[in-house]
Amino acid sequence: MTALLQVKDLAITYRTGGSIIPGRSRTFDAVKGVSFDIAAGQGLGLVGESGSGKTTVGRAILRLVKPSRGSIKFDGQEVTAFGSNTPLSFRRDVQVVFQDPRSSLNPRRTIRDTLAQVIKRHFDTPDDETQRRAAELLDKVQLPSYHLDRYPSELSGGQQQRVAIARALAPQPRLLVCDEPVSALDVSTQSQILNLLSDLRRDLNLAYLFISHDLAVVRQVSDFVVVMHRGAIVEQGPCETIYTEPQADYTKLLLSSVPALDAWKRRAGLNA
Ligand SMILES: Nc1ncnc2c1ncn2[C@@H]1O[C@H](COP(=O)(O)OP(=O)(O)O)[C@@H](O)[C@H]1O
Ligand SMILES: [Mg+2]
User: Fold this and answer.
1) How many domains are there within the chain?
2) Which atom of ligand 1 is the closest one to the Cα of 179?
3) Among candidates 5, 122, 1, 2, which has minimal Cα distance to 62?
4) Which residue's alpha carbon is nearest to atom 6 within ligand 1?
5) 265, burial (CB in 10 Å: exposed 0-12, middle 13-18, buried 19+)
């Protein structure tokens, strides 16, 4: 079976400084030959400390940054060859959830309008059908329907992130790129959102690229873990193997720097 997403030898180089001091541009290799696959319905956790290149990998898959080398295949199609006209199917199939829902939601739009706009854009549904789907999406993220007529500022951080997830689900994607989706939330809200993401994955057969600096978080939503350090993969494997028998020294270091991994899991009511 071919994977839903196949990333092969991906490299991304940023050019820095050139616009500030002409002629002084430098290059920085943020991602240096990264390869991994994600199967349909699989949760893949991409971990590493800040600056290791995780977001850059996510941005390349979303076509927000151009790779300097390598291949990204989604459903067998070469994403790096799409050019300026991204196929409609890809624009639906791959969605993103960012770290900070406050800045990713439009403060002047009600939740209803935010969801309706995305539904309409992707499916051109009549108004009553659009409304029905908006209510259904809110239900999927376990928010009561009266939130539809609220503005983002009237919701808590966790509720805002649920809306951001509902908006990402609106085009009926097959892959969600989640970039530190719970890092701005307190611990108990984190575990609720992680549980929601796990439920959605099971119910909708969604695949995830779950990016986080936090191994405790990644463990709850991933079957497979890729560990990045300074733009390269140092280790990858099934989730439990990475946590119980880490091979790379860097992974061991990351694990030992999660001070309250077990305490956190106990508090969140998770299994070891
Ligand atoms: N637009 C950019 N221009 C230049 N350098 C960048 C840019 N974005 C990120 N970087 C650099 O690339 C490296 C990887 O960044 P990033 O992918 O955001 O890491 P992570 O998400 O793991 O924290 C960092 O050293 C960062 O400073
Ligand atoms: Mg990042």
Assistant:
1) 1
2) 21
3) 5
4) 14
5) middle
Which atom of ligand 1 lies at the shortest distance from residue 65's CA? Answer: 1
Q: What percentage of the chain exceeds 70 in pLDDT? A: 92
Reported as type and span, the H/E element at residue 198 is: helix 187-204
Give the residue among 218, 117, 103 at the shortest CA–CA distance from 166. 117
Measured from CB, residues less than 6 Å from any atom of ligand 1 are 14, 16, 28, 30, 48, 50-56
The pLDDT confidence band at residue 25, using thresholds 50, 70 and 90, is confident
Using CB atoms within 10 Å of the CB of residue 92, give its burial: 0 to 12 exposed, 13 to 18 middle, 19+ buried: middle
> Which pLDDT belongs to residue 66?
95
Domain that holds residue 118: 5-268
What distance in angstroms lies between residue 166's CA and the mean position of ligand 2's atoms? 22
- Give the domain CATH number at 100: 3.40.50.300
**pTM of the predicted protein model:** 0.92
Closest residue (by CA) to atom 2 of ligand 1? Answer: 14
Averaged pLDDT, 42-66: 97
